[in-house]
Amino acid sequence: MVGDAVNDAPPLARVEVGIAIGASTDVATASAGVVLASSKRCGVAGVIRPCPGVVPEVVRNLAWAARYKAWRSRSRPGFSPGPA
Fold this sequence. Notes:
- The protein is mainly alpha-helical.
- It has helices at 9-14, 26-31, 44-47, 54-75, and strands at residues 2-3, 19-20, 34-35.
- The chain is elongated and about 55 Å long.
- The two termini are 27 Å apart.
């Protein structure tokens, strides 16, 4: 979990990996396992690396969802699902 405020402190203390952003409150910083020096959220990507099997699974799920949505829109003529 990533947090930066007082209300994030209890969950940061309970999770396995708690990350506090640099400009966070003292309570959140004390509760987190990792504290980023920068206030930018993009630094979180450098701390967390997904397991090797996660990315291919996400790609498979997105491909399945796109195929399903295309099939579903063709099976209901005249129906426009709009943005999802």
